[in-house]
Amino acid sequence: MNFEMEQFRLDGKVALVTGAIYGIGFAIASGLAAAGAKIVFNSLNQDSVEAGLEGYKKAGIDAVGYVCDVTDEEAVQRMVKQIEKEVGVIDILVNNAGIIKRVPMTEMSVEAFREVIDIDLNAPFIMAKAVIPAMIQKGGGKIINICSMMSELGRETVSAYAAAKGGLKMLTKNIASEYGEHNIQCNGLGPGYIATPQTAPLRETQADGSRHPFDQFIIAKTPAARWGEAIDLAGPSVFLASDASNFINGHILYVDGGILAYIGKQPN
Ligand code: NAP
Ligand code: GCO
């Protein structure tokens, strides 16, 4: 069997990207659309769905949006059944929706900790549980969980997020283990530090016009010497969503400019 570039195409596939009205999710959806996928997304309310649809229309993408909180299993089950009826069986699920709370652990309420775990870890479980049965019936599918460098490393103030993303790495490996025989490939994408609304507070220009200390820190820690852009995730997502990665399962693909490989530039 010869390799064909067609293996990177997603024509005829239905891709659900959660929380994809902007940021990394929107960029991933744009990449999947460019490879031929039909894009479906969800957000928390009708206004944000409408905003998302406007954004996709401006990008020339004919997307379909649904209101759904990914932590609500009944709502997720209803949404997946509605998508299967109105668009088609979900071939590709990207668990992108996520939040972060930056609070010193001893000052973090258990409610705040639980909220991060609920959205960043429990929801990918809920979403995968909802789409896998139809994927099995169809003969296979792709699940891509958006992990993080915090699936591997910790840092001050992100205990809940790191616990969730570390758990998401292992949930990825377990879905791969449990459903690989049904031709379902479940892999993770681990973005490095990406310039999106989620990291905007870490990049704010200081009152004296200087760069945020954390901004300078990340530049020194990243061999690419830059923050990632959301679009840097598009190509790797197409790869993991396509037939080109059919023998890759349970893998976390880090898209981090090399930060996990590098001790960091020596301060001047
Ligand atoms: P973002 O800009 O904050 O966008 C997150 C999206 O998730 C928003 O559209 C948000 O909707 C949605 N969302 C949050 N809770 C939801 C819920 N319960 N149900 C449905 N949608 C929900 O984040 P991002 O930077 O694009 O990050 C996207 C993913 O990449 C997250 O999982 C994040 O942890 C991960 N990640 C980000 C970075 C980075 O450096 N930016 C690096 C590694 C991993 P609303 O707008 O309505 O709140
Ligand atoms: C932080 C950042 C990181 C990034 C990302 C890194 O506060 O350290 O928000 O957590 O979002 O997860 O991969």
TrEMBL record:
<dbReference type="Pfam" id="PF13561">
    <property type="entry name" value="adh_short_C2"/>
</dbReference>
<comment type="similarity">
    <text>Belongs to the short-chain dehydrogenases/reductases (SDR) family.</text>
</comment>
<dbReference type="GO" id="GO:0008874">
    <property type="term" value="F:gluconate 5-dehydrogenase activity"/>
</dbReference>
<keyword id="KW-0472">Membrane</keyword>
<protein>
    <submittedName>
        <fullName>Gluconate 5-dehydrogenase</fullName>
        <ecNumber>1.1.1.69</ecNumber>
    </submittedName>
</protein>
<dbReference type="InterPro" id="IPR020904">
    <property type="entry name" value="Sc_DH/Rdtase_CS"/>
</dbReference>
<dbReference type="InterPro" id="IPR036291">
    <property type="entry name" value="NAD(P)-bd_dom_sf"/>
</dbReference>
<keyword id="KW-0812">Transmembrane</keyword>
<keyword id="KW-0560">Oxidoreductase</keyword>
<feature type="transmembrane region" description="Helical">
    <location>
        <begin position="20"/>
        <end position="41"/>
    </location>
</feature>
<dbReference type="InterPro" id="IPR002347">
    <property type="entry name" value="SDR_fam"/>
</dbReference>
<keyword id="KW-1133">Transmembrane helix</keyword>
<dbReference type="GO" id="GO:0008206">
    <property type="term" value="P:bile acid metabolic process"/>
</dbReference>
